[in-house]
Design a protein that fits this description.
single chain, TIM Barrel, Endonuclease - Pi-scei, Chain A, domain 1, 2 domains, 8-stranded parallel beta barrel, 7 helices, 24 strands, 39% strand, elongated, NAD, aromatic amino acid biosynthesis, DHQS_C
């Protein structure tokens, strides 16, 4: 599942009131703003992307024939040829283009699908909104390289849009006219982006101390709780849940923002069901935090620290399949046992059951594909 996102349209308010709403949205993680009147002022508030029908917008909006109801809307007498021509012209000029369509009948549905093959984003709003038009458009556009955005009014509308047909829309847009509504919708978008991985129990078969190698500590911008860590392994198809350093130790203070992850060649799961090599991670990269139930959230790498340390080999089996990873040989490095408890690599032994993730597909450049690849 890809990360979902939210955009806001600005309310028809005086600038000081509008500014407060936009600031709240930015603080909630929403940094795309649809506005026509105060673009220069909005840019001063932060690193914001502007959606508008002007050449200085970051995303150029087409399909505009007036305003109303807090959103741009189309008049009943618009013609699809004009909107498609405008979209094609904007794309030919190198613009990132978003089409805006008010769905009032089947013809508008069909126009949305046609525009979806041209533009980068498409905003949908329904006058008498039901689930069926949204389902139809999602189904028709799913295989195209276009992001579908539903215009919603509240948290319930956002939830329906983001969950329709399991896949849901890629994002939502709403009028930023209420502080609590902004925060609740932003949180709902975060929750809709969360992926759950089905963790299995593998049986440890070997624990072997090795010599030294370059290992990576991943310091994140989030504080992790006991029970949270990252999926890491020597093989891209099978990973161990490596626990964060969120526990106190008699040797070192806790570092709840850190996972002592493993050697430079190991894989780590990142958002979008993709993997990265630990050696590739740099400040600002997205990383996936995973708990003992396989629930996830996205964080950012604040620092990736590579140091030479003694390693050990950890080997386990699941349904006859052998999986391996290397970890630093230190008491503070932990995996997770069958009871969801952190288990130090200093204490792990053959026969212990530990939590792992097994991928059924192979991976090519970190992306899961239907192909046979042998990793050993």
């Amino acid at each position: 599942m890809q990360n979902k996102f939210a955009w806001i349209s600005t309310p028809d308010e005086l600038w000081d009131d509008k500014k407060e709403m936009i600031t709240t949205a930015l603080e909630s993680g929403i940094d795309y703003v649809l506005d026509f009147d105060d673009i220069e002022e909005i840019r001063k508030l932060g690193n914001v992307k502007i959606i508008a029908n002007t050449d200085d917008a970051d995303i150029y909006l087409v399909g505009i024939n007036g305003e109303g109801d807090g959103f741009v809307e189309l008049n009943d007498d618009f013609t699809d040829s004009i909107d498609i021509a405008n979209a094609k012209k904007a794309k030919s000029e190198g613009k990132t283009v978003c089409a805006y369509i008010k769905i009032t009948d089947k013809a508008h549905e069909q126009l949305a699908v046609r525009l979806g093959s041209i533009v980068d984003y498409i905003i949908l709003i329904g006058t008498d909104w039901t689930i069926i038009p949204l389902e139809n458009i999602i189904a028709d556009l799913q295989k195209l390289d276009v992001k579908i955005i539903a215009a919603v009014r509240d948290v319930d509308g956002a939830r329906v849009a983001l969950e329709t047909l399991e896949h849901g829309t890629d994002g939502i847009i709403f009028e930023a006219n209420d502080f609590n509504n902004i925060k609740k919708i932003a949180q709902n978008v975060i929750e809709a982006s969360q992926v759950k991985y089905e963790l299995k129990l593998a049986t440890v078969t070997k624990v072997k101390p090795l010599g030294s190698g370059d290992r990576v500590c991943v310091d994140t911008t989030d504080m992790m709780k006991p029970g949270e860590g990252m999926l890491i392994g020597s093989y891209s198809k099978s990973m161990f849940l490596v626990h964060s350093e969120s526990l106190e130790s008699e040797y070192v203070a806790s570092r709840p923002f850190r996972v002592n992850a493993g050697p430079v060649q190991a894989y780590v799961m990142v958002p979008g069901n993709k993997t990265r090599y630990l050696s590739e991670l740099v400040a600002g990269d997205e990383i996936l935090i995973v708990n003992t139930e396989g629930e996830t959230r996205t964080a950012y790498v604040g620092r990736s620290k590579i140091e030479r340390r003694p390693l050990l080999l950890l080997e386990a089996k699941y349904e006859g399949k052998t999986i391996r990873t290397l970890l630093q040989n230190a008491e503070t490095i932990r995996i997770v046992d069958e009871n969801n408890n952190p288990l130090s690599v200093a204490d792990v032994k053959p026969g212990d059951k530990v939590k792992v993730y097994i991928e059924t597909n192979a991976r090519h450049f970190g992306i899961a594909i239907d192909e046979t690849i042998i990793e050993q």
